[in-house]
């Protein structure tokens, strides 16, 4: 069974997004560098992945996008 960190990385790859794009879709705050670093830290297992982030990623994989989103 894959870890949540590994699942997050695979989900991002399926979406075809870099870490910053996923961070923007999740509406993480901070500078672009810090936003991307948070996603990469979650993927590396260095930062916990919250339940709301897991739910949001599932929604993104199902085709949902935030209001005003453009790929």
Structure explained in plain terms:
There is one protein chain. By secondary structure, the protein is mainly alpha-helical. The protein has one domain (4-61). It has 4 helices and no strands. It has helices at 4-15, 19-25, 32-43, 51-61. The mean pLDDT is 95. It comes from Brevundimonas aurifodinae. This is ANTAR domain-containing protein.
Layout of strands and helices, then pairs:
Elements lengths: L3 H12 L3 H7 L6 H12 L7 H11 L10
Helix pairs in contact: 1-4, 2-3
Essential attributes:
single chain; 71 residues; mainly alpha; 4 helices; globular
- Classify the helix fraction into a percent range: 55-70%
Count of distinct structural domains: 1
The share of residues in extended strands comes to under 5%
**Based on DSSP secondary structure assignment, what is the total number of beta strands?**
0
Q: What is the typical, i.e. mean, pLDDT?
A: 95
Could you state the order of secondary-structure elements as H and E?
A: HHHH
- Counting H and I runs of at least 4 residues, what is the number of helices? 4
For the report, how would you describe the main beta sheet? none
Low-pLDDT residue intervals, each spanning 5 or more residues: none
- Rg for CA atoms: 11 Å
Distance between the termini: 31 Å
The best one-word shape is globular
Q: Which secondary-structure class do the elements indicate?
A: mainly alpha
Organism: Brevundimonas aurifodinae
Protein name: ANTAR domain-containing protein
């Amino acid at each position: 069974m894959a870890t949540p960190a590994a699942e997050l990385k695979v989900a991002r790859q399926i979406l075809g997004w870099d870490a910053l794009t996923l961070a923007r879709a999740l509406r993480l705050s901070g500078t672009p560098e810090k936003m991307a670093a948070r996603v990469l830290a979650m993927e590396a297992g260095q930062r916990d992945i919250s339940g709301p982030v897991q739910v949001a990623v599932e929604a993104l994989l199902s085709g949902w996008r935030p209001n005003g989103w453009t790929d």
